[in-house]
């Protein structure tokens, strides 16, 4: 069985309140060896840390999501900095820009994003990037803030090859989730095909973005197996090879030994 690494999941979500332990057990049965759970605001950072403390195979990323950036208070950046010393915290994220949901003004999103990139450079942690309809500004800010110093993950990448190339040049890994499995996902499939194998990651973003054939349903980490199937199809590699490659890449990216 393939040993899989789900590099982006939210198994602490209330959507798993009725069956979290079972869902995590299903992930293990599906071959998931490691996961990074993402805490992205005041509610989910503590629940993410708790999950990482409960399971040895779950690591944590902590950061402030662009959609929630308006709610970031003085002291929250210091809170994230302190948590970076936690032995299970491997990255800062998810951070970035979201121009789809109109919840936080752009200038607030930009400030919060920049502050967290600076923090990542200070504590030497990779960053996990959330990018929705903001490709140009993401690349611009990553460049201006010297994010290449720490690198990280372009999570659930949905941009063009042109954007992917710029992110690869700044030491980022390109991660694909459920949407790449959709039949009409021409661009993501083309980008995946061109990403160097030593920069490829897979993820679920559970409970969101379930892969085909579960599109529209609740996603869970076990389904990263379907993303691995699609990545194998596109690259012409076996599923085991994809699992091995993305496992090695994930460990390297997050500094997991
Ligand atoms: Ni996410």
Description of the structure:
The protein has helices at residues 20-29, 44-54, 76-83, 106-123, 135-144, 161-169, 186-194, 224-235, 239-254; strands spanning 4-9, 32-39, 58-62, 89-98, 127-132, 152-154, 172-176, 200-202. With 257 residues, the protein is an alpha/beta fold. It has a single domain, classed as Metal-dependent hydrolases (TIM Barrel). Strands 1-2-3-4-5-6-7-8 form an 8-stranded parallel sheet. Helix 7 links the parallel strand 7 (172-176) and strand 8 (200-202). The two termini are 21 Å apart. The relative contact order is 0.16. The structure holds nickel (II) ion.
List keywords for this structure.
257 residues, alpha/beta, TIM Barrel, 8-stranded parallel β-sheet, binds nickel (II) ion
Query: How far is it from the N-terminal to the C-terminal residue, by CA?
Result: 21 Å
The Cα radius of gyration reads: 17 Å
Q: Helical proportion?
A: 40-55%
Low-confidence stretches: none
Going across the biggest sheet, name each strand in turn: 1-2-3-4-5-6-7-8
At the fold tier of CATH, the topology name is: TIM Barrel
Q: Please indicate the count of domains.
A: 1
Strand content: 15-25%
């Amino acid at each position: 069985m393939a040993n899989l690494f789900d590099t982006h999941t939210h198994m602490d979500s209330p959507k798993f309140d009725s069956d979290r332990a079972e869902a995590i057990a299903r992930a293990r049965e599906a071959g998931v060896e490691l996961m990074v759970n993402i805490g992205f605001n005041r509610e989910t950072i503590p629940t993410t840390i708790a999950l990482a403390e409960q399971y040895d195979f779950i690591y944590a990323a902590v950061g402030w999501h662009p959609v929630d950036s308006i709610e970031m208070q003085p002291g929250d950046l210091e809170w994230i900095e302190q948590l970076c010393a936690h032995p299970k915290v491997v990255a800062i994220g998810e951070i970035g820009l979201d121009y789809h949901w109109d919840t936080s003004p752009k200038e607030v999103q930009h400030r919060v994003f920049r502050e967290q990139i600076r923090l990542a450079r200070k504590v030497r942690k990779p960053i996990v990037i959330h990018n929705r309809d903001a490709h140009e500004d993401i690349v611009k800010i990553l460049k201006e803030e010297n994010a290449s110093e720490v690198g990280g993950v372009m999570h659930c990448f949905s941009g063009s090859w042109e954007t992917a190339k710029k992110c690869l040049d700044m030491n980022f890994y390109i991660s694909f989730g459920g949407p790449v499995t959709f039949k009409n996902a021409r661009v993501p499939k083309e980008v995946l095909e061109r990403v160097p194998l030593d920069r490829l990651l897979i993820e679920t973003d559970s409970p969101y973005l379930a892969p085909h054939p579960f599109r529209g349903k609740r996603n869970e980490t076990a389904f990263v197996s379907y993303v691995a199937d699609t990545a194998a199809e596109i690259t012409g590699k076996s599923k085991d090879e994809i699992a091995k490659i993305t496992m090695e890449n994930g460990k390297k990216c997050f500094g997991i030994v």
